[in-house]
Amino acid sequence: MLNQSCACSAGRPGVWQVCWQMSLSLQPVLQGLWSHLQLNETHLLGFGVETEEQSAGWDQEETLCICICVHLHVGQGYDALSMMPKALDGQIVMEKTPRYFVTVDTPARVHAMSQDVKLIVVVRDPVTRAISDYTQIISKTPNIPSFETLAFKNRTTGQIDSLWSPLWIGLYAQHMERWLAWFPRNQIHLVSGERLISDPAGELGKVQDFLGLQRIVTDKHFYFNKTKGFPCLKKPEGSSKPHCLGKTKGRTHVSIDPEVIRKLRDFYKPHNQRFYQLAGQNFGWH
Ligand SMILES: Nc1ncnc2c1ncn2[C@@H]1O[C@H](COP(=O)(O)OS(=O)(=O)O)[C@@H](OP(=O)(O)O)[C@H]1O
Question: Predicted ipTM?
């Protein structure tokens, strides 16, 4: 059941917002619209438009209500800094938006906001990343074509569709180059997604060093949870119980034709090499 009031966050400076709330009994139409909106988020972002706080639910009369907030970022004047929470002395404010790494205008905008901001990017094997991305997309929009279909412009000739969002995002070198045009390499810290799983304390140790923090988070804070198949926190702050990440993190991936995986590995090889050079480190993706 969806509450009738729409959930847009109001009054944020530099952002215009529109809020729609629809209630129709045309289930298939709305499901299609919902899929369309989710698939086109990247496209919308390209134009500086972002959807936020999307929610959908069925009311008691079995009609679908959708509430979508569209935030239109007004030119370059989007004042992100004033939207950040105030920090006390000794506190660091962090903002986490995975899409910033790949959104074309973001480096310039972040630079206009702060030239000495510290940037952290978590990167993982782009092939695994693409499959993870697709697994997430298909969990929300089950009727889309297969990964194998979407990954190719032409499957017969083997031509990869590098503009398909899950593959395009994995072209890390090209995204990194855009950031390096605005920020020196030493202001960007790269976290290995693989080591974040195999050695979370080690990887977070480097993050703490990069942020100039004392190494407080160490091995003793983690344990390997066999059921989850991932490291989890022994005792998160403010709780006495262990905590693993939620169901949408670390889920079983859709199984993909090994031949397609091989083709994708070949496709990414030169891009990965270029990324290792820019990064000054080899992430070992084969
Ligand atoms: N400790 C722990 N527990 C669970 N999952 C972990 C952990 N550490 C890293 N990972 C990996 O994080 C992946 C999910 O991150 P996301 O890409 O969804 O993050 S993001 O919020 O979009 O940035 C997720 O990807 P998937 O395995 O594809 O779900 C995990 O592989």
Answer: 0.96
